[in-house]
Design goal:
Layout: E1 3-14, E2 17-28, E3 32-36, H1 43-50, E4 60-68, E5 71-72, H2 80-86, E6 87-90, H3 101-111, H4 117-130, H5 134-137, H6 150-162, E7 168-172, H7 180-193, E8 198-202, H8 206-212, E9 215-220, E10 223-229, H9 230-235, H10 240-246
Parallel strand pairs: 3-8, 3-9, 6-7, 7-8
Antiparallel strand pairs: 1-2, 1-4, 4-5, 9-10
Helix pairs in contact: 3-4, 3-6, 4-6
């Protein structure tokens, strides 16, 4: 198993509150890793440390190392624009830009210097095809993204993240606002994305974790309790807390 990301002794504070505590784990390349655990255990905070969105949180302090392909992303002089290009993020609620469908996908490549319209056209079509939107929107690319359904908006946000060719895709509860049919479509998409990307998904839905992930990490009170192949975590957890959580004995 080749690790794309290695987390070493990660600690995070918000002011005086110690949110993540001595967390170490490896995230394998081109696999889906699910992060599970009750509300408030640090799952979303952990995601934000992986592309340094945590830097934007007032009062946040980070200690430890996060290695991306062996290089610490918290070293001085790290180019955050380049880092967030390599590690994209999709949030819990769809957040399309107040632009057309086309411009939502083209926005990132434009920011990174792509000006040729033919190249942008190809990027937009490819990314919309990957997320299964192209057939629905090819004839209305210049309509507002807000005219799409919530599920389509979420797939558009995934297409927007993919347009800058990331290596890692972080997804924070990407299905929580979606109906069951759309959720299944996003889950199918996540399973195919691992062919080209390393995917880390935060989810409260343990059934979803078993459906989409290769590895699962269980967080509790800011600590990593257990981490391993999803099948082993859910069928034979080593830790009593993991077993209790999986069996629904606490939320």
């Amino acid at each position: 198993m080749k690790a794309k990301i290695e987390v070493e002794n990660l600690n995070v504070w918000y002011g005086d509150s110690h949110i993540l505590k001595d967390l170490s784990m490896k995230i394998p390349e081109r696999k889906v890793t699910a992060i599970i655990g009750p509300s408030g255990c640090g799952k979303s905070t952990f995601l934000m440390t992986l592309n340094r969105l945590i830097d934007l949180v007032n009062g946040a302090r980070v200690k430890g190392k996060i290695l991306l392909d062996g290089k610490n992303i918290y070293n001085p002089g790290i180019d955050l624009t380049d880092l967030r290009k390599r590690i994209g993020m999709v949030f819990q609620k769809p957040n399309p830009l107040p632009k057309s469908i086309y411009e939502n996908v083209a926005y990132g490549p434009r920011i990174h210097g792509v000006k040729d319209r033919k190249i942008l056209d190809r990027i937009v079509e490819k990314c919309l095809r990957v997320v299964g939107l192209w057939d629905n929107v090819y004839d209305r690319l210049h309509d507002s993204a807000f005219e799409l359904s919530v599920g389509q908006q979420q797939r558009l946000c995934i297409a927007r993240a993919l347009a800058v060719k990331p290596e890692v895709l972080l997804m924070d509860e990407p299905c929580s606002a979606l109906d069951p049919i759309t959720t299944r479509k996003i889950e199918e998409l996540i399973r195919t994305l691992k062919n080209n990307y390393t995917v880390v998904v935060v989810t409260h839905n343990m059934q979803q974790a078993t459906r989409i992930s290769d590895y699962t990490a269980f967080f509790y009170l800011g600590k990593l309790i257990e981490h391993g192949p999803t099948q082993k975590i859910f069928t034979n957890p080593k830790n009593k807390l993991t077993k209790e959580y999986i069996n629904g004995r606490f939320s």
